[in-house]
Amino acid sequence: MIDLSIWATRLYGADFFAWLKENYDSLDIVVRLAQDTGVVLMDGHGFDAPEWSVRVSLANLNADDYIAIGQRLSAMLADYAEVWKTEK
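Structure (tokenized):
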């Protein structure tokens, strides 16, 4: 489970995460990741996890795949942060 609320807040601050929640749905990240990269993650909220979390399979991926997923999620948060900065 990756809690994006924690990472968004740590990387860009509480104001950024408040903006992200106000302007996007938590599913947007899962859908965008699948569309842009072909990586399919599950929305963590459906597994009784925090709303802004994603679930990554531990059963069928290579170690390098987890690094790539983390990098893609980080890049997506950076993209959202750029939009937030231009709107401020």
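The chain is about 65% helix and 10% strand. Strands lie at 2-3, 42-43, 53-55.
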